[in-house]
Write a structure and sequence with these properties.
- The chain has about 950 residues and is of the alpha/beta class.
- The chain folds into five domains: about 180 residues, P-loop containing nucleotide triphosphate hydrolases (Rossmann fold); about 90 residues; about 180 residues, Rossmann fold, CATH 3.40.50.300; about 160 residues, PCRA, domain 4 (Orthogonal Bundle), CATH 1.10.486; about 190 residues, Lambda Exonuclease, Chain A.
- About 50% of the residues lie in helices and about 15% in strands.
- The chain has 38 helices and 23 strands.
- The strands form five sheets. Strands 17, 18, 19, 20, 21, 22 and 23 form a seven-stranded mixed β-sheet that branches. A six-stranded parallel β-sheet has the order 3-2-6-7-1-8, sandwiched between helices. The protein has a six-stranded parallel β-sheet with strand order 11-16-15-12-14-13.
- The radius of gyration is 30 Å and the shape is globular.
- The protein starts with 11 loop residues before the first helix and ends in an 18-residue tail after the last helix.
Length: about 950
């Protein structure tokens, strides 16, 4: 492997970081100094000098960050990218539990997502015997609060016994103290009961992915020793955002070798409300003796005037900063020349302030400044909304990031839920009214309102009133609802919901309307996320019926659920409007920070109810206090600007509002007392008097697929495109809900059985018994999605036959040389990276055979198997991947239909790869320009076909 080309252009401090081989290293990387780059370059350098890629572990916080690191390491060497572990904290913890959980009595664990956790809590509500947090006062909102509190306890690694000891020791000399003691005693009981229930039912929540891993490693030092021996080099990104739990996991893995490098910036720690503590980075040298410390101060983003202002601001957090604690110089130095001082604008009213921002942006755009180089940042989401409304009024094209993130607040989701309520409860008149007047039936609201009012006056049900009205349209709608209701006894809520949006034609109408209205696209994304939460509900709930779901719905709605909306991602063509938290890690030429007043930025501290008692927060630092974090937020906001930084504030939010003081951060930034003339720019309009039109914009592949003009696609995604680009759009861009498909989960389980038999035999381990494997598969099969109870029973019977046949065959069949082989190939002649996983590779003389295992019973002859293999674009993609990695074509490519025993094989020639490359080039060009033509073969398509 050759060193990365980028390593040549590293500055002196970066080269020093990359060159260090052993021992603990603390890299203090200021804003815009290239922290991710030094991590990647150090990984490449270690491998270049002979370190096995599998001995390196890099941890970060988001799948996106982990993916970008993996891509850059893979660019230098494909084998390094495949064998180096680059993962999120939670993802890595989950992998360890799956691999070693059996050593600690943890096996076949089910992960509770946010929805699943609330359903789990609600179904065991009586077990917790709540009184102080009685569900009578607030039966739904309390569950989310209790779940969040348990999360904080786990993040601090507080054991139930420790919390109980704290509660028992509390005084109770008066009513206030007695209530406080009751509260904490009840929380201690809840915490202990929750953990016990999770262990009994073999479920884990997100925090358990690390919490239980730590518990296991402490109880099984033999497992810990294996991991310490394997991972000889640890690298941690964004270390300032770690919580105590994550820090302990790192400490355990580092062991006595302590070959650990952490990269972070205490001045950019803005997630204290999520459990992060600055104590981890401030005390790093105390925990790891002989730490080498390097500070990166060469900034490649902002002008010196912006950096100087930000530096003046952050001094307000002294002495609880690394610069003071470790006696460093963190004053950043600009790599770019020029730049003006930050500007401060003062207005009489908030309306005038936002109006000036809009007009200034309009002038910049007219002068030729690219819209994507401009951003408006606000401390609160209310500010983002207000700025959005003003820009809409002025017809300034812009993207809003992060608003309306609760799926339950989306109109389309509310309409679908009303329909489900009406189906579940025939006596729910209000739900029926909303269902009939909504997009499912679009019945004339005036006629429906007249009938409904008459029903209320007569104390009559709406159903009876409709039947007596003589309205054919309404009666037919009732009959359709009754058809949906008739099937609920055997169908899950997800199946019923899918039937509703499909049978009514609503799904097809949304599909056609989204091309012209971005708001429709957003609604589709929300519906798609709702179906995902339903799927999790079905996995966790004892009875996944529509009635049980409606019963759980208030708790789910009270907790809320966010969704990733590609239309709200950072735009590379429009002005961006977003909150400061969402701006971290991003940059723009011109940045506006609005509403810089006391109470808005900094935001007032209201004392969160989910805070842990100070006595239990062993790792809490004074640097974590509220005002210090608010100042770091302003530091992050300011350092997003590359060339121009403009801050604004106003005396009043409304004409009758109280007088507001300018933010203390303004004078800290500009370095002198604030004394500015008030701008007389009030245009006289009121933001409350208009309703903005929806913003229409083209929608293309989501950010997970298209980054920096390069496509990142899986083999299955490419297969879908090659068959029908419009189906690709339907599945992966719109993410439209698809019909329940238990066969997909079943196929994954069967693949897992084959992989397990292969890996046990290859490692010399005893293979599990047929009975135990059969039991695990049957328990793992989906409970829902079947047409009837009988069809589920037939599927289980087929599974037993298949597992028996597979067990007999793969317990003694020829072993492959590779199983579950991942690949990640970057094509040099087009901006496309392909990811996939090959089921098995077998030796074939001097060559190899690539084999993909298929479930299903439709292939019953050798000819059918051969035809499927000949026409398989999946096998051609595998041939391309093998050729890219090894420089030669595989000798044979096969589809192995394990349920019927037939194998179809084909040889691929170089001409086949050239044809495929041509199709991939067309696909890449069309995806980059948001072109999604219809294919010619729609037999496997999910999109509506007219």
């Amino acid at each position: 492997m050759s060193a990365s080309k980028d390593a040549i252009s590293l500055n002196e401090a970066q080269r020093k970081v990359v060159s260090i081989t052993d021992g603990p290293v603390l890299v203090v990387a200021g804003a815009g100094t290239g922290k991710t780059r030094v991590i990647v370059e150090r990984i490449i350098r270690l491998i270049t000098e002979g370190v096995e890629p599998s001995a390196i572990l890099a941890l970060t916080f988001t799948e996106k960050a982990a993916g970008e690191m993996l891509d850059r390491v893979s660019d230098a060497s494909l084998s390094a990218g495949v064998n180096t572990t680059i993962a999120t904290f939670n993802g890595f913890g989950h992998e360890l539990l799956e691999s070693y959980g059996g050593e600690y009595g943890l096996s076949a664990l089910k992960l509770l997502g946010d929805t699943g956790q609330l359903v789990f809590l609600r179904e065991h509500l009586d077990t917790f015997e709540l009184d102080y947090y009685s569900p009578v006062s607030n039966p739904h909102g309390q569950l989310k609060m209790l779940a969040d509190y348990v999360s904080l306890l786990k993040q601090q690694l507080i054991l139930p016994a420790e919390y109980r000891h704290y509660a028992d020791a509390l005084p109770e000399s008066d009513d206030a103290e007695r209530l406080d003691k009751q509260k904490h005693t009840e929380l201690a009981n809840f915490y202990e009961s929750y953990l016990k229930l999770c262990r009994e039912e073999q479920v884990i929540d997100y925090d358990d992915q690390i919490y239980l891993t730590i518990e296991m490693l402490r109880a099984r030092p033999n497992v810990l020793r294996v991991l310490q021996s394997r991972y000889k080099y640890l690298l941690v990104d964004e270390f300032q955002d770690t919580n105590p739990m994550q820090s302990v996991l790192i400490e355990l893995l580092a062991g006595t070798q302590q070959n650990i490098m952490v990269v972070g910036d205490d001045d950019q720690s803005i997630y204290g409300w999520r459990g992060a503590t600055l104590a981890n980075i401030l005390d790093f040298r105390t925990h790891y003796s002989n730490t080498q410390e390097i500070t990166l101060t060469e900034n490649y983003r902002s002008t010196q005037s912006i950096l100087d202002s930000a530096y003046r601001l952050i001094q307000g957090n002294n002495p609880h900063r690394l610069e003071v604690v470790n006696k460093l110089d963190k004053h950043l130095h600009a790599n770019v020349a020029g730049g003006s001082e930050p500007q401060i604008q003062h207005f009489v009213t908030y309306d005038a302030e936002l109006s000036w921002v809009a007009e200034d942006i309009k002038q910049r755009l007219a002068a030729g400044e690219p819209a994507s180089s401009i951003a408006v940042l606000a401390r609160r989401n209310q500010g983002v909304q207000k700025m959005h409304e003003v820009l809409e009024l002025r017809d300034i094209p812009h993207a809003v990031i992060g608003l309306g993130s609760d799926i339950y607040a989306q109109p389309a989701v509310r309409q679908l839920l009303e329909a489900l309520k009406a189906i579940a409860d025939p006596l729910d008149n209000m739900a029926l009214f909303h269902c009939l007047s909504g997009p499912l039936f679009a019945i004339d609201i005036r006629e429906l309102a007249r009938i409904s009012a008459g029903a209320q006056r007569a104390h009559q049900s709406l159903v009876d009133a409709i039947k007596e009205s003589g309205s054919t349209e309404l009666v037919e709608a009732l009959e359709r609802i009754e058809q949906w209701r008739a099937n609920t006894n055997e169908q899950s809520v997800g199946t019923v919901a899918y039937n509703v949006i499909t049978d009514s034609g609503w799904k097809q109408r949304l599909y056609h309307a989204n091309a012209d209205d971005i708001a429709v696209f957003t609604e589709i994304q929300a519906i798609s996320k709702l179906f995902k939460t339903m799927k999790e509900f079905e996995r966790i709930a004892n009875v996944p019926s529509i009635q049980n779901y409606v019963g759980n719905l208030p708790a789910l709605q009270a907790a809320g659920s966010g969704f990733d909306d590609p239309s709200l991602q950072i735009s590379d063509t429009l002005v961006n409007v977003l909150s400061v938290h969402r701006a971290k890690g991003l940059e723009w030429n011109t940045v506006y920070i609005i509403d810089c007043t006391e109470g808005s930025f900094p935001l007032r501290s209201h004392g969160l109810t989910r805070k842990l008692p100070p006595e239990l927060q062993a790792n809490r630092s004074e640097a974590d206090e509220h005002m210090a974090e608010e100042r770091r937020l302003m530091y992050v906001a300011s350092t997003r600007a590359k060339h121009e930084l403009l801050l604004s504030y106003s005396d009043r939010h409304s004409s009758a509002g109280a007088l507001r003081k300018p933010s203390r951060f303004i004078s800290e930034l500009i370095g002198h007392n604030l004394s500015l003339a008030v701008r007389d720019d009030n245009t006289g309009f009121s933001l409350e008097t208009f309703s903005p039109n929806p913003n229409v914009m083209p929608v293309g592949p989501p950010e997970t697929m298209l980054r920096n003009d390069r496509l990142f696609l899986s083999v299955s995604q490419i297969e879908t495109w090659l068959r029908c680009p419009q189906d690709f759009y339907y599945r992966y861009v719109l993410a439209m809900p698809l019909p329940p498909a238990p066969q997909l989960a079943y196929g994954t389980l069967i693949h897992g059985v084959i992989e397990r038999l292969h890996s046990n035999r290859q490692s010399g381990q005893t293979i599990p018994s047929l009975e135990s494997i059969t039991q695990e598969v049957l328990e793992g099969m989906p409970k829902t999605g079947y047409q009837s109870k009988r069809s589920r029973e037939r599927a289980q019977a087929q599974a037993k036959r298949t597992i028996t046949a597979i067990y007999e065959r793969f317990s003694q069949d020829t072993l492959p040389i590779e199983t579950e082989l991942p690949f990640n190939i970057e094509l040099s002649d087009m901006p496309l990276t392909i990811r996939g996983r090959i089921d098995a590779v077998y030796a074939l003389g001097s060559s190899v055979e690539i084999r993909d295992f298929k479930t299903g019973t439709s292939v019953t002859t050798e000819k059918q198997a051969k035809n499927r293999a000949t026409g398989s674009s999946q096998l051609t993609l595998y041939a391309l991947a093998w050729n890219e990695i090894h420089g030669e074509l595989p000798g044979l490519l096969s589809l192995d239909f394990v349920e019927t025993g037939y194998i179809g094989s084909v040889k691929k020639q170089a001409k086949s790869l050239e044809t495929l490359r041509g199709n991939l080039r067309i696909m890449t060009e069309q995806l980059q320009t948001n072109v999604f033509p219809f294919g010619t073969d729609h037999r496997n398509c999910q999109h509506p076909v007219e």
